[in-house]
């Protein structure tokens, strides 16, 4: 860090799941370090991190509340050993009331509108790449009936998703990618920004609410009520895809030693049960 003018840095790990998130105390800076698997191309992560910085700046320029790049040192990407990192402002967490249904709608809608005019080149279905990688790994493992059912559902969705109209999306807009700050909730984690099916970010936001709290949760109800009848089949497909992807990716990460295996298994069983319910009718029945 000394080459960036940062002296006597004490790293504090804030997160160690998909990527390594480290606060560089005593500075108000957070490093996002890409975790590479053995067969990952390091240049892929350099390009992905550079793109993430562009997206964050674009959204900030449009008034979307995001965690911004550090203004103390160059953001990067910076080479670190055999991987890459970017540097962001550190936000001191504060206690905020839970988002109401209306607040959740407004928060997601602001994000979706901010992404809608992002004109730089966006890769199609880049967020879905995580599902493809997870599926490839899970196929190679000895797995139980629940994983087999999830993989069967994945195959059907994977075949259809390539025919869907695509729109700019955050890609991973779930509740865990909102940080509480003294100025309100702020979005983080733009590495999966890509062209995705319509309503992908809305479906991403409510996916775990649906699995762990059901369709009667106020946030879920608010989102469902906001979807006009002609758009309901598109939303239901996006939610189905997101509910399939989440446990697959979390399970693959956990089996690699980079996540919570108990949570991934619980999410898997809830997803399988929900997909049975979803395939028996409409969310609005």
UniProtKB/TrEMBL annotation:
Domain Aminoglycoside phosphotransferase as annotated: residue spans: 19-216
Name of the protein described by the UniProt record: Phosphotransferase family protein
Gene3D superfamilies: 3.90.1200.10
Cross-referenced InterPro entries: Aminoglycoside_PTrfase, Kinase-like_dom_sf
Organism in which the protein naturally occurs: Alicyclobacillus fodiniaquatilis
Top-level lineage group: Bacteria
